[in-house]
C-alpha cells in the first residue's frame, strides 16, 4: 500500500491540524483535539473555518440561533 501524502498546517502542545491527499485525489483536513481526531472534506473544513472566524470576531452564526 502506498503512503498517503500529508502536510502539517499547525500544532500546539495539545492540538494539531494536518491534511492528507487521499488515493482518489481528495484533500481531507484532520483536526486532532487530544485523543479525538475529526476528519473534514474541503467543503466541510471551509464551513468550520468560517464558523470559527465568526465566533472569534463576535459575528455569531449566519441564519441560525441556538
Low-confidence stretches: none
The count of DSSP E runs of length 2 or more, i.e. the number of strands, is 4
**How much beta, percentage-wise?**
35-45%
Largest sheet: 4 strands, antiparallel
Mean pLDDT: 90
Number of helices: 1
Secondary structure category: alpha+beta
Compute the gyration radius: what is it?
14 Å
First and last CA, distance = 45 Å
Integer tally of domains: 1
The side-by-side strand order for the widest beta sheet comes to: 1-2-3-4
Helix content estimate: 10-25%
The helix-strand sequence is EEEEH
Indicate the overall shape.
Answer: globular
Protein described:
- The protein has one helix at residues 42-56; strands at residues 6-11, 15-21, 27-33, 36-41.
- It is an alpha+beta fold.
- The protein has one domain.
- Strands 1-2-3-4 form a 4-stranded antiparallel beta sheet.
- Strand 1 (6-11) and strand 2 form a beta hairpin.
- The longest helix has 15 residues, at 42-56.
- The radius of gyration is 14 Å and the shape is globular.
- The relative contact order is 0.13.
Summary tags:
4-stranded antiparallel β-sheet, globular, 23% helix, 66 residues, alpha+beta
Sequence-ordered SSE layout with sheet pairings:
Elements: E1 6-11, E2 15-21, E3 27-33, E4 36-41, H1 42-56
Short description:
With 66 residues, the protein is an alpha+beta fold. The protein is built from 1 helix and 4 strands, in the order ββββα. The chain has one domain.
